[in-house]
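Onboarding guide, step 5: your first structure request.
Type a short instruction followed by the sequence, for example:

Predict the 3D structure of this protein.
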Amino acid sequence: MVHKRQETRLVRFSLHELRRQGEYGHIVFPRTHFTSSHPHKKAGMAVMKTNRIKTVGILGTGTIGSSWAAFFASKGLVVQMYDADRSIHEGAVQKSKDNLEALAEYGLLDKSMLDQTVANITSVRDFGQMVEGADYIQESVYEDYGIKKKIFYELDSLAASHTILASSSSGLLMSEIQSVTKQPERCLVAHPFNPPHLVPLVELVPGRKTDVQVMQDAHSFFEDLGKIPVILNKEAPGHIANRLAVALWREAVEIVIRGIASVEDVDKAIYAGPGIRWALMGPHLTYHLGGGDGGYRYLMDHIGKTISVVWKDLATWTEIPEDSKDILVEGVKKSMGSRTFTDVANWRDKKIVELIKVIYDAPKK
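The system replies with structure tokens like these:
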């Protein structure tokens, strides 16, 4: 147990400062092969058998944290949720339960198991209780190095030596975060994609001192839970998916502010075209097929030459143009019409479930 003096200090460093990030994600997906060239391996590091992960601590209970909680609980794990802001926390516990009810409604969770699954989630009232007994801790707080370093310092001080410490960070570097810990080898980024109780992707990113065994354990852990984990061999701001997403977003904004097309038609050009293929395969395999019998090399040697004209015309700015914001917001409002934010979000989640069931052949309960 953590002494009361410790508990007070932990709360005071201020999870009150934290804003929340994220969204939700999950299902049953095919296994992926893991290889890693990450070199760090610390002698004497306790090996964590992933089937021994029974209890998960959730630190930060915003949209991402509450979604993670639902995901882990749906897999039969005990979940201990904590946030210093009680008003946010209580609402998040309910949101986690709502997410589980949605999974049951979508046919992704046996309805007869719903009450038992909801009971897997526990709301705890102090930082120490969240840490106590946890085999794996998922931090999902505001994207700020100062805040995350304070948190990881305390987690490292209190958690059992075998406990894996993971951050949901969408772009911060674990090398910087783990620099304040005494056991940096057990720290990594486990970044979900919107929404973690529905979308299978989780990006696993090591810091310079992360143990390769911890990366392997985390990969096996998530794969066994039905996620599709991907490994970054080295850190990069934005990881993989967000680097690709923001590159596309910048050009989507550029097309609108140059008057080439409307917000609505830019979105249509993605979801009714390449977005359909992207749900099945990424850009490399897509362009390999685009090369016909000659494959990827043929495409790069021939069609790739004409693409250079397009690349030269793409946007290169690194800050969203201030005068574009009103245009973009009004364009989205027009595109939504009479639909509310909740209408669109609920429609999206239902369609994601339908797609996942088709693409990954997830069994209906």
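Each response can be followed by summary notes, for example: The domain at 241-360 is CATH 1.10.1040.10 (N-(1-d-carboxylethyl)-l-norvaline Dehydrogenase; domain 2).
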